[in-house]
Amino acid sequence: MPYDTLRVFRKHARNNRLANLRLHRACLQLSQEAFVARRVSFFPTIRATLNHIYTVDRFYIDALQGGTLGYAAFAEEQPFASMAALHGAQAELDEVLIAFADGLDEDGLAAPVNIHRSARIQQDRCDDILSHLFQHQT
After folding, report:
1. What is the DSSP letter of 104?
2. Which terminus of the chain, N or C, has less C-beta within 10 A?
3. Cα torsion 101, 108, 51, 136: sign
4. By three-state DSSP, how is residue 1 classified?
């Protein structure tokens, strides 16, 4: 059976959704105090960590869809104060990513994507951006 690259990216999108769902279910059990408590980590709180994942997803998914949001995705460092609000927004974004992956064909995987950076437009292949996005989650 030949290797199906599209299938791999579609599975990654679904695995991303499942991983986020499992993590969020656990975090939804936290009190607000625990959600914002300072911790020893790259990001100082669970809130900051999960908001970062959301904003990075938004940045790259927008670019993949041909958008020009760019660094405006990061204008608000922590757009969600509560886990419930963050969970809803992340779940919606996960579905957008799945729909995007499902709509790809081989040419789409190799297509150039413009990523709007602060002073320039970076161009990368769609499959490279998807690989980076899925790796960022781990």
Report:
1. -
2. N
3. positive
4. coil
Residue 127 lies in a domain: yes
Indicate left, alpha or beta for 48 from its phi (over 0: left) and psi (-120 to 50: alpha): alpha
Residue 34 domain-assigned (yes or no): no
Q: Using 50, 70 and 90 to split pLDDT, how confident is the model at 137? A: confident
Q: Tell me whether residue 20 is in a domain.
A: yes
What letter represents residue 88's amino acid? G
Q: Measuring CA to CA, which residue among 92, 74, 77, 72 is closest to residue 24?
A: 92
Spatial distance between the Cα atoms of 123 and 138, rounded to a whole number of angstroms? 24
Model pLDDT for residues 93-115, shown as the tens digit of each residue: 999 999 999 999 999 999 999 99
CA 53 to mean position of chain CA atoms: 6
Whether residue 109 contacts residue 127, with contact meaning beta carbons closer than 8 Å, is answered with yes
Task: Name which of 135, 117, 138, 115 is nearest 126 in CA terms.
Answer: 115
- CA-to-CA distance for 106 and 91, rounded, in angstroms? 26
Q: What's this model's pTM, rounded to 2 decimal places?
A: 0.94
Domain that holds residue 112: 5-29+40-136
Phi, psi of 24 (to 5 degrees): -65, -40
